[in-house]
Fold this sequence. Notes:
This protein is of the alpha+beta class. The chain has 4 helices and 6 strands, in the order ααβαββββαβ. The chain has helices at about 1-5, 25, 60-65, 125-135, and strands spanning about 45-50, 70-80, 90-95, 95-105, 115-120, 140-145. The radius of gyration is 21 Å and the shape is elongated. It has a 6-stranded antiparallel sheet, with helices on one face.
Amino acid sequence: DRLASRFAGIEMLSADHADFPVELIFGPGRFHEPPPDDPRHDHVFWSAGLHFSGPVSRAALLAALGRPEPHLVRAKGFVRFADDPGVLVVVQLAGGRTEIAELRGGDLPANTECRLQLIGTGPRPADAELESAFCIAPDPVSVGGPGLHHG
C-alpha cells in the first residue's frame, strides 16, 4: 500500500467515511458531544433561507453579511443587484470572507430565484431580526419560503 510505505512506522487507522473513535485524536475524556436531545445542541448552529423579491443594494448586502450579529459562518445563494439587475450574481460567505461572482451568458435561467441560505452560530435569531438585518430589497424580504428551511 502506497500510504503504508510512505508513512512506515506510523500507526494507521482504517475508517469508512471518517467513522472512528475521536478519543484516538483528542485523547480519552477530552471530547464530549452533547446527545441529540440535549437542548444546548440547538444553539450551536442555525440555518435560515432568505428570499429576495427584487434586486438588492450591493453595498447594503455586503454590510449585512459583514455585521457581527447575527453571527454568520456561511451564506450562499443568488441575488440581482440594483445597479445591474440583468446580471445574476452568486454570493458566498465562508471563513469571514465574502465572494461575489457574476453569471453571464446563460449560465442559469433568467427566472432563477434570488435567495440566500444562511448558517450561523449561537441562538437562532427570530425571523423579524433576520428580516431587519437583511431588509435591503425594494420589496420585503421573506424568511423561509418554498424549498427553504429554518434549522
